[in-house]
């Protein structure tokens, strides 16, 4: 196996690996898992993997999530279909920087996403390294946010396009979740900046006198939250991946955000994803 970094910050392509082999090969699986912790997103091309093997590979990391909105594949329960058809409106909710499912008590550990069909050009996906984003924060900001907690809601993002009744039903099932603004990676111990498009507000901003933020003489919680959310937008923390059919991305959802670029005209874009259940951020 060859490991080819795609940037200096995040993401590596694995060349010469058949992901289906890792379903039964413990050594190979552990190597891939280690590389994932190190690089945060792994990419592979030309993976002619069956849907059951796609699911079986993802299952090696843990149980798979269900998705409240997307249908799972009839051939492979646990595999969620993200299909974009030419007759659908272009706007979709994945084109915002986000960490999957932070509106849940336990956001996903990670995802294994395969491209089935994609536009000839456009429709890339981008990821950002949120451990690096944390590390690069000014010391004063790090001190300011160390014990902050924040509220996360699906309503602040994709629910905007949902009919009200569906939204209320989902809200009953998934009330808002509260997470630390800086989480600790349960496996690597890294500190991670953990706010994204689902984050609505801080829940304990008032408990400590906050230091001055930027040029603003009267700093507000919202300014700080916008600033922190904006760290994912910095290109030095990002990688951008160009899809082809049978390309696969595996990401650590605990330490990254991603953004599905919506720059292509009406066409088919078919992705299939298996999301792995994560633990409670601390
Ligand atoms: O379609 C993509 O490229 C990624 C969409 C997304 O945000 C996800 O699968 O979590
Ligand atoms: Fe996502």
UniProtKB/TrEMBL annotation:
<dbReference type="InterPro" id="IPR003819">
    <property type="entry name" value="TauD/TfdA-like"/>
</dbReference>
<keyword id="KW-0223">Dioxygenase</keyword>
<keyword id="KW-0479">Metal-binding</keyword>
<feature type="domain" description="TauD/TfdA-like">
    <location>
        <begin position="3"/>
        <end position="274"/>
    </location>
</feature>
<dbReference type="InterPro" id="IPR051323">
    <property type="entry name" value="AtsK-like"/>
</dbReference>
<keyword id="KW-0560">Oxidoreductase</keyword>
<comment type="similarity">
    <text>Belongs to the TfdA dioxygenase family.</text>
</comment>
<dbReference type="Pfam" id="PF02668">
    <property type="entry name" value="TauD"/>
</dbReference>
<dbReference type="GO" id="GO:0051213">
    <property type="term" value="F:dioxygenase activity"/>
</dbReference>
<keyword id="KW-0408">Iron</keyword>
<protein>
    <submittedName>
        <fullName>TauD/TfdA family dioxygenase</fullName>
    </submittedName>
</protein>
């Amino acid at each position: 196996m060859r490991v080819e970094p795609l940037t200096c910050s995040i993401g590596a392509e694995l060349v010469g690996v058949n992901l289906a082999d890792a379903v039964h090969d413990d050594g190979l699986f552990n190597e891939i898992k280690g590389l994932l912790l190190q690089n945060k997103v792994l990419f592979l091309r030309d993976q002619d993997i069956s849907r059951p093997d796609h699911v079986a590979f993802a299952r090696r990391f843990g149980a798979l999530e269900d998705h409240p909105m997307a249908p799972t594949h009839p051939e492979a329960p646990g595999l969620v279909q993200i299909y974009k058809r030419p007759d659908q409106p272009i706007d979709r909710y994945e084109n915002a920087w986000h960490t999957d499912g932070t509106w849940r008590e336990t956001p996903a550990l990670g995802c294994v996403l395969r491209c089935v069909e994609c536009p000839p050009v456009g429709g890339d996906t981008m990821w950002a390294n949120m451990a690096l984003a944390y590390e690069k924060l000014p010391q004063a900001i790090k001190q300011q946010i160390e014990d902050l907690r924040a509220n996360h809601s699906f309503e602040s993002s994709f629910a905007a396009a949902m009919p009200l009744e569906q939204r209320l039903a989902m809200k009953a099932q998934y009330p808002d979740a509260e997470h630390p603004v800086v989480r600790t990676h349960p496996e690597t111990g890294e500190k991670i900046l953990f706010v994204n498009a689902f984050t609505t507000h801080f829940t304990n901003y008032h408990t400590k006198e906050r230091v001055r933020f930027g040029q603003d003489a009267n700093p507000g919680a919202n300014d700080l939250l916008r600033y922190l959310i904006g760290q994912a937008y910095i290109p030095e923390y990002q990688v951008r991946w160009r899809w082809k059919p049978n390309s696969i991305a595996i990401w650590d959802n605990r330490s990254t955000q991603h953004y599905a670029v919506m720059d292509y005209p009406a066409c088919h874009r078919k992705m299939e994803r298996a999301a792995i259940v994560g633990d409670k951020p601390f």
